Amino acid sequence: MAIKKILTLLCCFFAIPQLRAQVSKVTLSGQVVSIADGQPVPFVNIILKTEKDSAFVTGTITNELGRFSLPDVKSGNYRIECASLGFKASRKNVTVGTLSPFLDLGEFRMADDPRNLREVTIAGRQAEGVDDKLDRKTFEIGRNVSQSGGSVLQALKNLPGITVGEDGKVLLRGSDKVAILADGRQTALTGFGSQTSLDNIPASAIERIEIINNPSARYDANGNAGIINIIYKKEKQEGFNGKIGMAAGLGALRVRKENLPDIRPQYRNTLKLNPSLALNYKKRKVNVFFQGDYLHTPALNKNEFVDRYYDSGDTVRQQTKRNRNTNVVTAKTGADWTFDERNALSVSALFSSEKILDRGDEPFFNASLTRRSRLWQFLEDELKTTVTASASYQHKYAQPGHLLNIGLNYTFHRENEQYFFTNIMPDFTGKDAFKLLSDEHVFDLNADYLRPLRYGRLEGGIKLRRRFIPTDMQFFPGLNSPIDSLAGGWADYKETIPAVYGNYVFENRHFELEAGLRVEYIDLRYDVNPTHPTYHSDGYTYTKPFPNVRFAFKIDDRNKVSVFYNRRVDRPNEVDIRIFPKYDDAEIIKIGNPALKPQFTSSWEAGYKTGWNSGSLYAALYRKQINGTITRIGTIVPGSTLIYNVFQNAGKSYNAGGELVWQQELAPWLSVNMNGNIYKNTFNAFSVENLYPVKSIYSASKQTLMSGNAKIAVMVKRSKTEVQVVAVYQAPDIVPQGRTGHRFSIDAGAKRQLPKGELFVNATDLFGTLIIRKTVYGDGFHYKSSDYYETQLVRAGYSFKF
Which GO CC annotations does the UniProt entry carry (predicted)? Predict the structure, then answer.
């Protein structure tokens, strides 16, 4: 039985696009001084040789202050030799690792020598190498051929350990508590502690994506599953250059499941358009850039069929069909100004306008579909506007890699929603509406200090965030309105977070150590309309430490073992505590909870990586313990079939499993990448009280389930053509009140390099097998849902570089 289980695990491990290293090359630096008087010695010949066979690697000479730097050195064991007329030669052994891009070798002290030394001639080439500190994975969007021309959300689903769940939620190793960053910063475009608009960020604007499973103390403590960092493109070639592109697609190619009777048709053959333009001008000390994208994506955004069963014997069958038109304009511009070799200033601004029109139908039938009790139709008219302004100053000290970075960021995000409902009942028709206006203001100030050491580096910094979100909800009830108009009004979200961190990195020939501590204070106030029938003002404060430790042993140049520990937090986002009921589903109603508290997570991980000439293997075991698990809990009111899903802290939960990532070049023209995650999710027994619309208690027993996901990507390269096929499988999983079903899909694409550009074509979910299924159990009811939203899409595009 044990052998069978092991074979089953191994057969499940599949993966995706090629891993790249985070720190591939290192800059060594130091200073040469005289033993006699302690003064710097200029124009000393510095030679770097391999320790094993004294082979020449690279060289340089010291400047007027006796300082030197040797860039682009790969990991390994070396010897540095210093030679100059009038001085005895000085030598020092050096170990170059994978943790720090800069190493300060300190002082090289040279004694006087009256004998003349021969002139040293330096010749050779710099070595190249690839390494990885096992805490993150980096992927170039351009290599994801099967998702070219799509959104960031679509590109993410083919990356290792990532799955996309209900409502476009990104899950990393089975958890949706992921912090999404843009260029290393949180913005309203990607969400402060949540995920927003990822499906409306064009992948054409992105250079690469980093998946950070074990963030260090220099990152915000938010996000227990880890961090996904989206890096925007920015050219820095000399002169004027640019790129113009056009991608088009066709979705909803067939009706995967027919509508319930008497509602408006589903969207079919939806046309997607994505023109893009990137411009860059660099001359001497100034670099100016611009990037603009337009995304037109009509789609069958949701097509969910739900069967609800009640202990009373009632059965309700419903469908939520949402035809969505989305138009997104995104522009990013900025400039980099290098005053001198020590000081530089960068400024940038991003503007995004996202216009959404949803036309939805939601019929409700009896079990046999012979009687319709209600038809709920809605029009959502939503405009999301985001403006981000950033300025960063960098001072470089004389020692390479010795830096001071100061940044100031401001983000404004407006959510302007209008919903118009038509409530068609057997004996009357009602017209209802609401308007929501929410303005988000976020100010971030941060300072980061980096100091290279001989065997690593020191990092430290401070950060201050002020965040304000005033929200106003107005309900306009119609005839016999089912809307709770008294639950409207205003609410003000106010958040202040100062934080300080320190991080130390040490590395020698055999060992690596990274240890850091982030201390974070938060003061959150949520003031609500005093006339609200259920909720009152609430909030919380805390001062908490968030440590991280990583220890690694380098077995040899190709084998490394690492162990990790960190503590992180998931703070409820403003929409999680928002007090207004949401009626895009008229009978499974979502609402926030202002009494919601943060969940805290402790994570342990052990990783092993090995490589060979044509491939590599990475394996990890991990475990997370979550206190105060945040989730939605559904309850009903006696005598009613309406279900109210309210956010709650549902006690302790655990996630433990293993990950395997394997890549192999089978032939010069054929490569395969496989990734797999198998994990065990556990939710301890818990009991919570939902207050809206009336008090009700829900209690759950302990739940445990083995789950996982697997991916395989095959790449064929012939001349200037690349063809990629990606298969993705997600096993059934549990949530605190039920479980999700399995999912499977296959994507394929091809790309052709042209003299001044590239041409691509691809298709997603080739066989229409991707369906999101869920079963939820509550006191007095349970329901099953299946979402046949738009997953099949063909795209083609062309980009031209100049």
Answer: cell outer membrane
